Amino acid sequence: MKKTPRIIVTAGSTRVPLDEIRFITTASRGRTGIQICRQALKMGWKVTYIHGQDTLLPVKTGKYLKLVQITTVDDLVKAMRKELSLRRYDAVIHAMAVSDFQQAKIRSGKVPSTEKKWTVKLKPAPKVIKLIKQLSPETILVSFKLETGLSRRELIARAKKSLEKYHADLVVANDWQTVRQNRHRAVLINKEGRVVAEKQGKGSIAREILRQVGKMLRRKK
After folding, report:
1. Cβ contact 47:41 at 8 Å
2. Contact criterion met (CB below 8 Å) for 23 and 17
3. Which residues of the chain have pLDDT under 70?
4. Tell me, what's the pLDDT at 196?
5. Model-level pTM?
6. Could you tell me if 7 and 213 are in contact, meaning their C-beta atoms sit under 8 angstroms apart?
7. Nearest 10 degrees: Cα torsion 145, 90, 50, 121
8. Who's near 21: CB < 8 A, 6+ residues apart?
């Protein structure tokens, strides 16, 4: 009997609370992540979709889709720990734009607009991607590397460093300039450091990521 792949897809962004009302976040709404989720569901894969509060969601739900909403990096850590301890996942496709920093101290209530100055101190946030292979070494990890204004060679070089650092099986290297101009281009690099594909457009990128994951899963059998 053919086994149905089960994957986690993270999408959107996390928030960094400053007080009870205000927060810092990124521009990501999870457009790449939602494409990956939709394509995987079309392929009959089981998807746990971990998403931020303002993230795009699938139109249709069903028995093969589980939605997990998070807000902060700490929420994402808890969700990832819970999911990877509950069951075995074949792959984690970590497309979420996770905050690298978090507020050292959250102000209580709402800071009055009459304040003359508000100094915000940030501290490094936990690296969720680092946690994934620690919790589930056999799970295929797809990481994303976003840079801005780099040459193709520089982008690939930085992506390879990230690949090695987090023990990912595939890294998707993106340049913010193409993302924000709606002509998203991505370079996919495998764990041997070889460029295996270059795609343009979120749908095309999503399909290629899943194709590469499928190939890795078949090799494991």
Report:
1. yes
2. yes
3. 1, 180-181
4. 96
5. 0.93
6. yes
7. -40
8. 110
